[in-house]
Every structure is written in structure tokens, then in C-alpha cells.
């Protein structure tokens, strides 16, 4: 697109890419970014909701979880979760962590995610500590769990 684009629409709304809603009290609640929404079977899933479910599992680092959508070879969409572990788990403990995360997500959404476990510092973040969803999808979108 060439030239300048208006940042505000005719009704005074600012285009930010953020998604949210107004409460009955007139407060704005931000749910996430439009570009990060996961769409599976026609449903919009907010990554933050999935990330909270995964981070609630004992052994997973809070703030070290990213969720995003992946298009599979058969054109189906799935939820992919990359979670940093608190410690380096044994193979058996890793399986149990993945099972617990998947169970939490399935219980809340009815969807079965693919879960990848990584060590501390492997979930990409900005300098201010925010999760970089697009970069995570680029790094881990093609990776399969062991």
C-alpha cells in the first residue's frame, strides 16, 4: 500500500490490531492480538487462554509458554504449545507433563494440542519479556514432539 493510511476510522476507532470488548461498566478488556488468534474448526481461540492452562501444570515455567495455530499437511489446523520446563525432565516426566498440558487444554476447549517441551530461555520474547508468537510459530511450527 502506497502513501499514508488513516490510523483512526470515521467513528474515531484507532486501528491497533488488538482484540477486546467493552464491559457493562464501559471498561475495555484486551483479549489479544488479531494476528495471534488461533482458528481451529471455525473457532477463535485466544493464545493467552491456552498459555494459562499450560502454565498451570506443575513443572512448567510461568511466562515460558506460547500457543499458536499450525496448518497440517492435510490442511487441518491444530493448536501447538511450546512450554519451558522448570527443570530438565526425564523422558517419562516429559511425557507426563505433555499429557497434563494436553488434558487441561482438551478439558477447557475440547481440542487436542501438540505439546513441545523446551528448556528455559527457548520461548522467544521481546526485550520487555512479551511472548513473540509469530517468531515462535516460525521456530517451532514444523517441529514434531519427540
Please describe the topology of this protein:
Layout: E1 18-22, E2 28-33, E3 38-40, E4 43-45, H1 47-55, E5 60-71, E6 77-85, H2 91-109, E7 114-118, H3 133-140
Helix pairs in contact: 1-2
Quaternary structure annotation: single chain
Query: So what's the CATH class?
Result: Alpha Beta
- What separation lies between the terminal Cα atoms? 43 Å
Shape: elongated
Instruction: Give the biggest sheet.
Output: 3 strands, mixed
Stretches where pLDDT is under 50 for at least 5 consecutive residues are: none
CATH topology: GMP Synthetase, Chain A, domain 3
Strand order of the largest sheet: 5-6-7
Derived from helix and strand composition plus strand pairing, the structural class reads alpha+beta
Task: Classify the beta-strand content into a percent band.
Answer: 25-35%
Walk me through this protein's architecture.
This is AMP-dependent ligase C-terminal domain-containing protein. It comes from Mycobacterium shottsii. This protein has one domain: 2-Layer Sandwich (GMP Synthetase, Chain A, domain 3). It is 25% helix and 29% strand. The protein has helices spanning 47-55, 91-109, 133-140, and strands at residues 18-22, 28-33, 38-40, 43-45, 60-71, 77-85, 114-118. Strands 5-6-7 form a three-stranded mixed sheet, with helices on both faces. Strands 1-2 form a two-stranded antiparallel ribbon. A two-stranded antiparallel sheet has the order 3-4.
